[in-house]
UniProtKB/TrEMBL annotation:
PANTHER family: CYCLIC DI-AMP RECEPTOR A. Gene3D superfamilies: 3.30.70.120. It comes from Hathewaya limosa (Clostridium limosum). This is Uncharacterized protein YaaQ. Pfam families: CdAMP_rec (PF06153). InterPro entries: CdAMP_rec, N-reg_PII-like_a/b, N-reg_PII/ATP_PRibTrfase_C. It comes from the Bacteria.
Length: 109
């Protein structure tokens, strides 16, 4: 058995949970916050049989698409260490970060 941990954008989370549960997977949903964009995201955890991991990853890939977003990035102004200018920067968001971890023991009580 594997523990699949998927970190996805909030806007993809509900569709992903629905697709996973429709496919017979049980999902635990956690509200989390990313460090770079300081925006909300969702972490999903699933206990999955070894032979089902690729199927779960395929579902995540189908739902969680990457897209571009413009954010402001504070940059120190030239010659002034305590003054910051903000510049728009285009970053790629979305998609998913997935961890697959071995489960030594599983119990449902």
């Amino acid at each position: 058995m594997k523990l699949v941990i998927s970190i996805v954008q909030d806007q993809d989370a509900n569709d992903l949970v629905e697709a996973l549960t429709d496919s017979g997977y049980r999902v635990t949903k956690l509200a989390t916050t990313g460090g770079f964009l300081k925006s909300g995201n969702t972490t999903l955890m699933m206990g999955v049989d070894d032979d089902k991991v690729d199927n779960v990853m395929d579902i995540v890939e189908q739902i969680c698409k990457t897209r571009k977003q413009v954010v402001t990035s504070p940059t120190p102004a030239t010659g002034a260490a305590s003054v910051y200018m903000t510049y728009p920067v285009e970053v790629k968001i979305g998609g998913a970060t997935i961890f697959v971890v071995d489960v030594d023991r599983f119990a449902k009580i």
